What does this fold into?
Amino acid sequence: MKRDLISMLDVKDDIEEIIALGIDLKTKVKKGQTTHLLKGKTLGMIFEKSSTRTRVSFEVGMEKLGGHALFLSKNDIQLGRGETIEDTALVLSRYVDMIMYRAMSNVAMKEFAKHATIPVISGLDDKEHPCQVVTDLMTIKEHKKTLKDLNFVYLGDGANNMAHSYLLGCAMVGMNVKIVAPKKYWPDAYYVDEAKKFGVDVVVTDDVKHVADDADVIATDTWVSMGDETQKQQRLNDFKGYTVTKEMMNQANPNAIFIHCLPAYYDYEVSKEVAHGPQSVIFDEAENRMWAQMAIMVTLDK
Ligand code: CP
Ligand code: NVA
It folds into this structure.
């Protein structure tokens, strides 16, 4: 039975093992050891949206595992000219061992996974970004040594893919989650309800006054995700006051860290002072995309 990673819920039973494997692979490769756990395997990577980190980290990660990755831009394959998702999934399943798909929509993602006979890994869709949140949990673990009982605060667009995957991912490892967003941008109720089932504190609020009180981790993301460009001006107005600032970081617990999946837009969702400041771990986080995804690919290939 093939296994996909489309929602954080797909890794709820082995998230800790995947994080541990990511840290182990990172340690081994940095010591010069070979980790050819996917020798001779091929990853197909379909992109319907732009990418820097996802593309490069999957391609280099696959090479480090002894495999090979193929970059498939939607514009260059027949999918972009109207070939069905079903036929594309069935055909690619005959050539490659695994697919990474960055899709415009979660509907397309699920349709692809339904027809593919090989594991499908989401490289983001409009509802979730699971590879990024597995990575972020690995990064938090490295810096804080533990995940359980930490207080996680996310400020900004509470209805986007990052906010949804944070709700599920943080809750499943025992972290308390607070989403701070204007009411119009609160998460889909489904993700809040699923997060609450893990028994942690889940709070959704528009109150930015005491946003960082007791926070161990502060996160944000762009206010204008890919696909939201037509609403850009409206969103910049709506999110005024929701910028992560140095003053906010000072309110948090001592040793609190700042994370951001990147790309960042400075002086909108976060000041550059914070993003490039002493509490920020954003470049460790970017690096960890590769190690975490290597662990994900090895796990799904089993
Ligand atoms: N964080 C992230 O997914 O970055 P890219 O869009 O550059 O892949
Ligand atoms: N929420 C952002 C994440 C980018 C990695 C987007 O979907 O554009």
